[in-house]
Amino acid sequence: MQAVQYRSPGSAPEVVTVPDPEPGPGQVLLKVAAAGVCHSDIAVMGMPADQLGFPLPLTLGHEGAGTVAALGAGVEGVELGAMMAVYGPWGCGRCRMCAKGVENYCLRAKELGIFPPGLGAPGAMAEYLIVDDPRHLVPLGDLDPVQNVSLTDAGLTPYHAISLSLPKLVPGSTCVVIGAGGLGHVAIQLLRAMTATRIIALDLSEERLELARRVGAHDTVISDANAADRIRALTDGDGAQVILDFVGAPPTTATAAAAAGLAADITVVGLGGGTVEVGFGSLPYETTVCSPYWGTRSELIEVLDIARQGAVSVHVETFSLDEAPLAYERLHAGEITGRAVIVPGS
Ligand SMILES: [Zn+2]
Ligand SMILES: [Zn+2]
After folding, report:
1. What is the CA(157)–ligand 1 centre distance, in A?
2. Cα of 155 to ligand 1 centre, how many Å?
3. Cβ neighbours of residue 4 under 8 Å, at least 6 residues apart?
4. In this structure, which ligand is nearest to the CA of 88?
5. DSSP of 139-202, one letter per residue?
6. Which end of the chain is more exposed for a tag (fewer CB within 10 A), N or C?
7. How far is the CA of 135 from the centre of ligand 2 (A)?
8. pLDDT tens track for 87-139
9. β 260-268/128-131 pair status
10. Ligand number with the minimum distance to the CA of 93
């Protein structure tokens, strides 16, 4: 089959032919219908080899959806032909965190060598994908796989981050969303569906700010050195109660710190290498800083339910498998508005 692989440190992704995978005991084979292209892949491809933590070549794609094509020995309760979304942050299924469905914080994944598809295990950017366990599948039902595949990360990750701050997102509060790209434009819609907070979106691109307004941001601000002052001005000097930084680079974490109000939550989601200093006097009193990772199994079910209610729709630009390297190039150049999705066979 064809697969999009990251083959050697520092190289661009390539479309290659690899053997067709066969599901082992307990595994499920999906015929991939759609795979999302994520900025974190670009961050991973920029890491030195010794920081990767898994061997190359790697088939990319940690957002996946497809139909059940074959079942490994012993798999029951999954119907051939059913359309499924893949829960990506695989864990052991048995530890204290996995028992709660919090497989994104599995206590044993590292020691057992368990990796998410596309981030260590072979990913969804191929004609077929092996899913290690049926518990990592959520039925899509009548949700379109191309339109909704990105909810498995670009929806689940902001949903989890927002859930952590729900008590602060009361009417009259302000939430700043930094980065109105793949995750940010979904975060804005989730905030509108889940809260009555006022949303201020930041981005470098006027085109993405236009998308932010279209999907529900109340105000938009160009993400430059003056952004925190603009946020203060828009909030009568108070600053924001919640700041979700989907970029996480040094300039945006600096903006996040400077825009925080009293007892704010600063949540750094993006992999941009920025940090927020915490210490007496460095932030407003009782400000909390946190950097979560992805989301839980039950949260993915909830995100797909929100999509079923029509409250979230991903702005999608589609590419064929052959065009995947181009999709990464365009994402890297900041030329994707919304989410790029690979559709094998298109
Ligand atoms: Zn991602
Ligand atoms: Zn576990």
Report:
1. 8
2. 10
3. 13, 14, 15, 16, 59, 60, 61, 125, 126, 321, 324, 325, 342
4. 1
5. E-TTS-HHHHGGGGTTTHHHHHHHHHTGGG--TT-EEEEE--SHHHHHHHHHHHHH---EEEEE
6. C
7. 13
8. 999 999 999 999 999 999 999 999 999 999 999 999 999 999 999 999 999 99
9. unpaired
10. 2
Q: Beta partners for 117?
A: 121
Distance 234 CA to ligand 1 centre (A): 31
- pTM metric for this prediction: 0.97
Place of tokens 């949303």: 199
Is the per-residue pLDDT at 221 higher than 90? Answer: yes
Check whether 288 has a pLDDT greater than 90.
yes
**Residue 316, strand partner residues:** 339
How many C-beta atoms lie closer than 10 Å to residue 282's C-beta?
Answer: 10
Ligand nearest, relative to CA of residue 63: 1
| CA 270 to centroid of ligand 2, rounded, Å | 24
Residues with CB under 5 A from ligand 2 (ion): 91-92, 95, 98, 106, 108
Neighbours of 193 (CB within 10 A): 16
